[in-house]
Amino acid sequence: MLWFIPGLIALIVGAELLVRGASKLALSFGISPLVVGLTVVAFGTSSPELAVSVQSAWSGRVDIALGNVVGSNLFNVLFILGVSALITPLVVHRQLVRQEIPLLVGASLLLWALAADGGISRWDGLIFVGLLLGYTVLVIRQSRRETAADREAGGDVPAMDEQAWDRHWGVQILLVVAGLALLILGSNWLVDAAVTLARQWGMSELIVGLTIVSIGTSLPEVATSVMAALRGERDIAVGNVVGSCLFNILAVLGVSASIAPSELLVPPSMPAFDIPVMVAVTVACLPIFFTGHLIARWEGGLFLAYYIAYTAYLILDATGHDAQAGFSMVMIGFVLPFTAVTLLVLAWRHWRTLRAGNSP
User: Fold this and answer.
1) What is the pLDDT of residues 160-210, one digit of tens each?
2) 119 DSSP β-pair partners
3) Which residue has the higher pLDDT, 6 or 235?
4) Considering only CA atoms, which of 180, 197, 203, 221 is closest in space to residue 73?
5) How far is residue 242's CA from residue 236's CA, in Å, rounded to a whole number?
6) What is the largest CA-CA distance in the chain?
7) How far apart (Å, rounded) are the C-alpha atoms in residues 89 and 83?
8) What's the pLDDT tens digit per position in 127-138?
9) CA dist., res. 247 & res. 50, Å (int)
10) What's the Cα-to-Cα distance from 211 to each of 93, 176, 284, 315, 360, rounded to whole Å?
11) Which of 29, 57, 78, 212 could form an S-S bond across to 65 if both were Cys, CB 3.0 to 4.6 Å?
């Protein structure tokens, strides 16, 4: 636990350097801040998940590798977006609603389907990696075309401050590299302290992966998205979360399954509970993001409350607490259906408003 404070400091400083360098790098290379958030920042801040899951898969700790991916995605959407939206309402770029969220839903459903037979094979992993490469090429080419079209049309394209000390692309790359290094170092210190504590408490490796490890490896995303929200870089704040979730499934799980000595055996509880919860959370993003293209503070609070409820369920289930059955009944029988109906009604009302506004 001695490394907790140094790790936290490293995360905060690293997030500041990464957001500054990445946002300036976007302007230097004609790439929009949203795409930088979806690629450079998202992939960089997900590197702790990649390192932990690959090492765990290679050493045979499959439960930690899989739990880290699913737990990180739940933490990214529910906790990070929740906290960021509580700080300031987040404006959602239309591209996320049209392209990235449907892709994330598709990747989550594909993971559920491949895990249903009890294992993730090397070929399954290669499919994920191939999809990641195709997606990365797609978004970069889209962004460069859109930026070039804006310049030709005389649109408002952000300009670089020629007097800024970080105006040169070499300095910006150094900022990104230094930020990533501090993020990885800080998260490793925190994860080491957390895993040691969890083992002392006698928790299973799957629960450790779904909670302690996934939270620890997602701390770079926390620091980066919160810092981006505070700095007004809302595209990076939201794009970082969505891009990280895609990276976790396609790259972290894909690479882990591709290089593992044998097939990654999926615990029965994952396709029966944890992965469906991840899919449901991802699908829930569609009506929230679609409604006004804004994540309001109350919606951020809803996300955060659901993450607390999910974590509470894992703890109650792991400890065999008597309250677990009643807690599950309330969540499944009332809270989840009520939330689903509320989101659908909001989406329907927004759709009706749009139709009324477009009608002659």
Assistant:
1) 455 566 667 678 888 888 888 887 887 778 677 767 766 777 777 778 778
2) 265
3) 6
4) 221
5) 10
6) 67
7) 10
8) 999 999 998 888
9) 9
10) 30, 28, 21, 9, 52
11) 57
Which pair of tokens denotes residue 40?
A: 């450079």
Q: Are strands 264-265 and 90-91 parallel, antiparallel or unpaired?
A: unpaired
Angle in degrees, CA 187, 190, 191, rounded to 5:
85
State the pTM of this model: 0.80
What's the pLDDT tens digit per position in 272-302? Answer: 888 988 988 888 887 777 666 778 888 888 8
* 46 closest CA partner among 8, 76, 25, 22: 76
Residue 43 has pLDDT above 80, yes or no: no
CB 79 within 8 A of CB 310: no
Domains of the chain: 4-152+173-358 (1.20.1420.30)
For the record, the structure tokens of 1 come out as 């636990």
